[in-house]
Amino acid sequence: MLEQRFHTIIEPFRIKTVEPIRFTTREERAVALDAADYNPFRLRAEDVMIDLLTDSGTGAMSSWQWAGMMRGDESYAGGRSFATFEAAVRGICGYPHVIPTHQGRAAERILFACLVEPGDLVPSNTHFDTTRANIEARGGEALDLVVSDAYDPASPHPFKGDVDLTRLEEALAQRERRVPLAMLTITNNSGGGQPVSIANVRAAAKLCRLYGVPLFLDVARFAENAWLVKQREPGYATRSPLEIAREMFALADGCTMSAKKDGMANIGGFLALTDDDLASRCKEDLILTEGFPTYGGLAGYDLEAIAVGLYEALDEDYLRYRIRTMEYLSERLVAAGVPLLQPPGGHAVYLDGRAFLSHVSSEQYPAWALGLALYLEGGVRGVEVGSVMFGRRPDGSESPAPLDLLRLAFPRRVYTQSHVDYLIEVVLSVWERRHLVGGVRIIEQPLALRHFSARFAPVAAALVAEA
Ligand code: F0G
Questions:
Q1: Mean pLDDT of 167-191
Q2: Closest protein CA for atom 9 of ligand 1
Q3: Which residue among 36, 63, 220, 404 is least enclosed by CB atoms within 10 Å?
Q4: In which band, very low, low, confident or very high, does the pLDDT at 464 lie, cut at 50, 70 and 90?
Q5: Residue 353 has pLDDT above 60, yes or no
């Protein structure tokens, strides 16, 4: 740990391999944006200078992970790397059955294929979009029951990821619909990367046990959640992130994991659980769709990288640096008056699009427009989590999402403080001239998951007028 008298949180690593960033001019970016039909997902990554589209699979691996990859055992069955992976996952989660998958959504799909029937209800704090889509693909209904503070961007509530226990009990107690499982997303990504308290997981688990419903955790960012619990929940200040994580896992019946986040890997995931019979059924589906149970959808070297990464994600110096980066960015923006979701989450800062561009109507997608302005201004790419992502219902009708946010998600161990300082300058520059930023309209869109491929056009002639 750094000595307390020093305030600068330095990156707790040295850089051994570098990847050049191609600097672009504003004119080049204007051309790129037009060619991409004003959809950041359609940009070429090499035209982006600071890429905050996602923290998923975009992190830098450590020398120990790369060393692990050289140890990878590529045997089809019974490989040594699986034993290493299984022991690493069990050491944190404690669940006896560990099923490797190629990424998180494969673990979700397999679990729901074995549990969810048409008409079933699956409550959660907030389902991530792949989780929701996989439940809906089974004919089930994904129910979001997060506490009401989560919908107030300014509320300083320390655990805005908590599930509303009263509404959870109502869902569990009703008799019209089957509830085959309940879930909690930890941290709550779609709700702003907000943590879930251990007290809330404990209370939710108790309710689930009372109604005989298994509780599964979506733990893509379990280590960041453990750190935020350590910082914010009474009684946890002296506990290690590993101890806190173990306590959380012990309350549930299983988990789905995207190892592309707190597994510190570029690909991978797993499903881990206690129930023997359910595990056998999941493994049958795994063999059909992913691969043999000792490699799932992964290479032996991926299993090694994840086995190391899961513990690196729990390192206190790393977590302090990571969460402090979010706080630092957030403090500097808030001091200048920039509206953002409070308090900052674990993996990202979420700008409040509606408050930032208060002159742009919700129907003209302010958070999306803000994302385009940040790209044009400084080559920064974020992702809209708002009405483009969530505003369209399966029947094609449309209504604005409760929050219209621009997520700036940080790849792990990739950017340094000077990148963050540059980002702050870019955001403030747009903030100062925000009245010049116009909205956008959709000119072509697919039926589902439209944000990935829809084409847009700016409503005003310029997104940010020339200085
Ligand atoms: N659960 C959560 C909470 C997630 O954030 C993600 C992915 C998944 C599950 C699915 O995992 O991508 O490995 O299949 N989130 C990424 C993001 C895509 O940008 O937030 P996956």
A1: 95
A2: 104
A3: 63
A4: low
A5: yes
Cα-based torsion angle of the residue sequence 343, 6, 309, 51 in order, rounded to the nearest 10 degrees: 60
Q: How many CB atoms lie within 10 A of CB 76?
A: 10
Question: Cα 443 vs. chain centroid, distance in angstroms?
Answer: 28
* Cα-to-centroid distance, 89 and ligand 1 (Å): 18
Ligand 1 centroid to 5 CA: how many Å? 38
User: Which residue among 194, 260, 270, 405 is best mutated to probe the pocket of ligand 1, counting the most ligand atoms within 8 A of its Cβ?
Assistant: 260
How many whole angstroms separate alpha carbon 254 and alpha carbon 240? 22
Ligand 1 environment, Cβ below 6 A: 54, 56, 103-105, 128, 130-131, 185, 189, 218, 220, 258, 260, 269
At residue 129, the pLDDT reads: 87
Q: Quick check: pTM over 0.90?
A: yes
Amino acid occupying residue 5: R
Tokens for 212, please give them. Answer: 């005989």
> Given a cut of 90, is residue 182 above it in pLDDT?
yes
Contact criterion met (CB below 8 Å) for 400 and 363: yes
CA pair distance 283, 370, nearest whole angstrom? 44
Cis before 54? omega within 30:
no
Q: Could you write out the DSSP letters of every residue in 100-148?
A: EESSHHHHHHHHHHHH--TT-EEEES---HHHHHHHHHTT-EEEE-B-G
Output the CA 104–ligand 1 centroid distance in Å: 6
Q: Which of 41, 54, 102, 105 to mutate to test the pocket of ligand 1 (most atoms within 8 A of CB)?
A: 105
How far apart are the CA of 257 and the centre of ligand 1, in A? 9
Q: How confident is the model at residue 247 (pLDDT cuts 50, 70, 90)?
A: very high
Say yes or no to pLDDT of 467 above 50. no
